[in-house]
Amino acid sequence: MTTARDTAALLPEPEVLRAYLRALAILDAALNNDLQDRQYESTPPGVPAWKPVS
Q1: What b/e string do you get for 24-41 counting C-beta neighbours within 10 Å, with b at 16 or more?
Q2: Per-position pLDDT tens, the chain of length 54
Q3: Is the dihedral of CA 20, 26, 30, 33 positive or negative?
Q4: What's the whole-model pTM score?
Q5: What HEC string does 4-53 produce?
Q6: Torsion angle, CA of 48/49/53/54, rounded to 10 degrees?
């Protein structure tokens, strides 16, 4: 049986994981046709969050 600690040990460094997950979120948003489901809230400081056009 695998524990959460074992699984966490397999993950890459936080910066690498963050970049991968951001890329995955952008790809998901690009492929998703439903604008209501598009949300991207992880923006760098000083950059306004992207809002879908209504």
Answers
A1: eeeeeeeeeeeeeeeeee
A2: 889 999 999 999 988 998 998 899 888 878 877 766 666 556 666 666 555 555
A3: positive
A4: 0.53
A5: HHHHHHHCCCHHHHHHHHHHHHHHHHHHCCCHHHCCCCCCCCCCCCCCCC
A6: -110
For the record, the structure tokens of 14 come out as 């936080």
Cα separation, 38 vs 11, in Å, equals: 26
C-alpha to C-alpha distance for 20 and 24, rounded to whole angstroms = 6
